[in-house]
Amino acid sequence: MPNGTTGLLHEKLIAWQVACELLRVVRDARISDAKLRDQAMRAAQSACLNIAEANGRDSPADRRRVFAIARGEAAEAAAAVQVAAISGCCAEPIADEARRIGGRVAALLSGLIRSM
Asked: Rounded CA gap, 116 and 114, in Å?
């Protein structure tokens, strides 16, 4: 666990920070459909975990591959909240927030992928 003066490398990535924000939005959506809620949470968690994993990889190609997986997971998490709202399983404003944040995660990860 990092202390006040050190931290894990992934924690410095804006993509990681925004993916964590997406995870919080998915959690706070309180999706009433248990299966859809589980899928949304797993995708949001996976986005965060894949960003951390990618940042720990040595090979640029491997990092790109895992960042791309994280991008897909973020898109899935945002879409799951949108589907929940369309289905009446959560509020529309939270779905709009998930879409906005999910898009930001995807854009940040696309930038990381291109920079390698």
From this structure: 6
Phi-psi region of 88 (alpha: psi -120 to 50; beta: other; left: phi over 0): left
Which two tokens mark 75?
Answer: 């898109």
Question: E strands, 1-116, where?
Answer: none
pTM of the model: 0.91
* Single-letter amino acid code for the residue at 86: I
Q: What is the pLDDT along the chain (116 residues), one digit of tens a residue?
A: 444 445 578 888 999 999 999 999 999 999 999 999 999 999 999 999 999 999 999 999 999 999 999 999 999 999 999 999 999 999 999 999 999 999 999 999 999 999 98
Among 77, 84, 85, 80, which Cα is nearest to 49's? 77
Q: How far apart are CA 104 and CA 74, in angstroms?
A: 9
